[in-house]
Design goal:
The protein is α/β, with parallel strands linked by helices. The protein has 14 helices and 17 strands. Helices cover 35% and strands 22% of the residues. The two termini are 16 Å apart.
Length: 392
């Protein structure tokens, strides 16, 4: 037998939920061959309890922070959390590499097949070279001042060069690597412009509106983020005071057909969503809102405006964030929390965010995200308690 047959209570194909009388047929390696009625499938069917789904897409993670599990206590608030992330960095390099490897294996076991992974260093390269997952390596830039923009970009382009050289030397076909901005409160005006020039047509991400102080920083030049900026020697905001929200102030820097993933969006408003949609229509190839609901709960015990995003037909995707801000790196756990907090959202809708939407956001829909003939998207079983198991 050169193929495998799967049947469960439900089959989610990446777009819609099919009932139990459907059988998924794959090659032994996991390439999708067909979905057919059970009456036509013959024997040798593996029958399971739960939902069959394409492999999950983790659109936002910080794999290199995996050594920080349980280091920062939950619900400190974002600004104390950020100061802890910056300040608690004294770990042995061997431990960092070991925890990266363990976290990568955890994600694979959870059924994750591709990751949008943030990194400030090249620490994850060794693990990713032997990984079965597909990686969007987002080399994250932080630069508060225009005066040192060239110096900092040279530094981060050096990190990016390490990823590019590994891709070329080892003929790695499943990586996409490029620079991305960290957040509106860590990127100077000129730095935004330089990243824009370097990322035409690329997939990029940016942390967005995790705290009301982010908007206050741009509207008034004041607020609680000044405490964070003081850590880096700034007594006043180094960023332009625009009178607008952080998103409306910074998203216009990107206008070269990038596909932009906005991450967290905990305090994003209707006005922001409308503005971003208009900007994306004119200047971007895609705009996606990444939910990391367990990280939002971990850091500030806040819930992102999921219903508002849905009302606006926003392209929603899911992420885990890092072990500095989550109890696990599991998309199944993110699905479970969303379903608990928003029980009226159909499970098929949430699974779409975790599969086909995520694959589109990472520019991987031609290979992942749905059970379409010829794809090899992975096969995951999600049980009634939202535990996930990788089948292929």
């Amino acid at each position: 037998m050169n193929y495998r047959k799967f049947q469960a209570d439900c089959l989610f194909d990446g777009h819609e939920m099919l009932e139990e009388n459907h059988v998924l047929i794959t090659s032994l390696e996991g390439k999708i061959m067909d979905i057919i009625p059970a009456a036509e499938a013959g024997g040798d069917i593996l029958k399971l309890s739960g939902i069959l789904s394409p492999g999950f897409i983790n659109a936002h993670c910080h794999l290199e922070l995996s050594h920080m599990k349980d280091v920062i206590p939950p619900q400190t608030g974002l600004i104390p959390f950020l100061l802890d992330v910056v300040g608690k960095r004294d770990f042995a390099h061997e431990l960092i590499l070991e925890k990266i490897k363990l976290a990568e294996q955890e994600m694979e076991n959870d059924g994750i097949v591709a990751v949008g992974d943030i990194g400030n260093t090249a620490d994850t390269i060794a693990t990713k070279m032997s990984s079965k997952l597909k990686w969007n390596n987002f080399v994250e830039v932080l630069c508060f001042s225009d005066q040192i923009a060239d110096q900092r970009l040279e530094q981060y382009n050096g990190v990016l060069k390490n990823f590019k050289e590994a891709e070329e030397k080892f003929n790695i076909q499943h990586w996409q690597s490029n620079l991305v901005p960290h957040a509106p409160y860590t990127i100077s005006d000129i730095t935004f412009k330089r990243i824009n020039e370097q990322t035409a047509d690329a997939v990029i991400s940016m942390h967005n509106q995790e705290n009301p102080a982010e908007d206050e920083l741009y509207k008034t030049g004041k607020g609680n983020y000044l405490k964070f900026l003081q850590k880096f020697g700034f007594e006043s905001s180094p960023f332009p005071t625009t009178g607008k929200s952080a998103l409306q102030s910074c998203l216009p820097h990107f206008n070269k057909d990038q596909r932009v993933i906005l991450v967290h969006n905990t305090f994003t408003s209707q006005e922001d969503i409308s503005f971003a949609a208009q900007h994306a229509e004119a200047h971007l190839s895609g705009l996606h809102y990444c939910l990391c609901i367990n990280a939002n709960i971990y850091i500030e015990n806040k819930i992102p405006p999921i219903e508002l995003l849905m009302q606006n037909n926003a392209e929603i995707v899911l992420g885990t964030d890092s072990y500095s801000s989550n109890w696990q790196l599991s998309i199944a756990a993110e699905i479970k929390t969303i379903k608990e907090k928003f029980p009226l959202i159909p499970i098929a809708t949430i699974l779409k965010w975790a599969t086909s939407n995520g694959a589109k956001a990472l520019n991987r829909f031609s290979e992942l995200g749905s059970f379409e003939k010829g794809k090899q998207p992975g096969v995951v079983l999600l049980d009634n308690n939202f535990n996930s198991k990788k089948l292929i």
